[in-house]
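Sorry to interrupt, but I need a hand with the structure work. It will help me judge whether the discrete encoding reads sensibly. Write everything out right here, beneath this request:
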Amino acid sequence: MTKKLVPEMRSFSRLVVDGIKQSAGRAMLRAVGFSDADFAKSQVGIASTWSNLTPCNMHIDELARLAAAGVEQAGAKPVTFNTITVSDGISMGTPGMRYSLVSREVIADSIETVVGAQGFDGVVAIGGCDKNMPGCLIALARLDRPAVFVYGGTIRPGVNKSDVISVFEAIGGYAKGTVTEQQLKYVERTAIPGPGSCAGMYTANTMASAIEALGMSLPNSSAQEAISADKRDDCTRAGAAVVNLLKLGLRPRQIMTRKAFENAITVSIALGGSTNAVLHLLAIASAAEVKLKLDDFTRIGKRVPVLADLRPSGRFSMSDLVAIGGIQPLMKTLLDAGLLHGECLTVTGTTLAKNLEDVAPYPEGQEIIRPLAQPIKKNSHLIIMYGNLAPEGAVAKITGKEGLSFKGKARVFDSEETALKGILSGKVRAGDVVVIRYEGPRGGPGMREMLSPTGAIMGRGLGSEVALITDGRFSGGSHGFVVGHISPEAALGGPIGLIKSGDEITIDAERREISVAVSIVELNRRRKAWKAPLPFAKRGALAKYSKSVSSASLGAVTDLE
């Protein structure tokens, strides 16, 4: 017999289904499977990002059913609904990539809309591809109803440990002549073997790990293969966990505190994660009304080392990390070293420290996670830079393998397409600083990821000889001497829009400075001659986004007060 839940657990659903006046609503719900008993239960929305658009999400329909079963077994009523996804990997290097970051806002808005309209008491949100995860978390922070996030899981590596980044870099190798057409086709056919998100510590696995550290997913949810029994069990347990959160009255904003965001930043750094973590954590914090700034990444980064030897700059895949225990032993190491706030609450209903209490260390001899005393880099690879090129800030991903400084002549391109053409044709040469502009949140619009250009640079063998800067952003798969999120962006008259080819640019990771050797007088002269570009779109989603989006330095959010 189903136990009747206390009224407090139904604070939203009772407004939708209780009383004579809601008879019509109950009549409609009966048609979709509600029984008399169901109307007395808490309702939990299962927000699924399932679609056949991308490997990241193709299996999430099954995961959503398992989460719903977990909710039902725990005594509540699950209701599943879908939101969108788009594929970064498929749209990369095309005009369609403009919709990628836009999709984060659409996902957040749609989950908020459905949950708010239907009166769900709690939420399980399941995401796979890059923008699903921050989109889900933004919605959960806005709604502030008991909620658990479930990561769809990582893909298994392809043949010869290949992945989608292998394909992008093979394209550059083909342009250089070091990869044959037959070899390129083989990589294309074997790099992506089935369901799951991209295999390295790229944006999806970075954000999944950050969300686990934030306390919003169950322990080790971030470190499970998409097609594993562990992932299926994770979904069922998430359904039960959200019902427990309803009983406890524990809400996302009680979990997503300032200290919890510091934990998320710490783990992202230790794992060598994507620069997109900066953009997305700022946006999630904004939705949770937590004051988080670019400079917090610098402050925390001074004391947190990079410990994970993971792709794209390292040797191992997420599946390799899963095999040795995932991120929980790493978090235990960081906690014991005083680098995590153990008192933070999590969706288990207890603290981070309690969750990690019985976690065993990594097995002897593993090479994926370094000891604290022998880090890959003694401080953060996520470098926040300022200077006359980025008065509001920029984000660099510098592991130290690329060196810590770069000086070269600007090679300016006003779009990703023209830059890629210039790289593949040999126009870009050793010593250049490739400048890709008018790709910011507003000017792009949508702040496209520059994986195609960075992959081409690597493929042409210029990874250690060329730097790339942009007001766009980077895929978590990008590596090399790269600086993105340059703010203000070119479309708003930022200094990056005033650079000319041949200008000398200096990037200094130790001083956290990015500058162009042009006088203030000359920059002012150029600014007077500069004309704002016409908007890319006049109507529709891109136009609305362009009008409302904030600077990348604030997370590129669309609902600032």
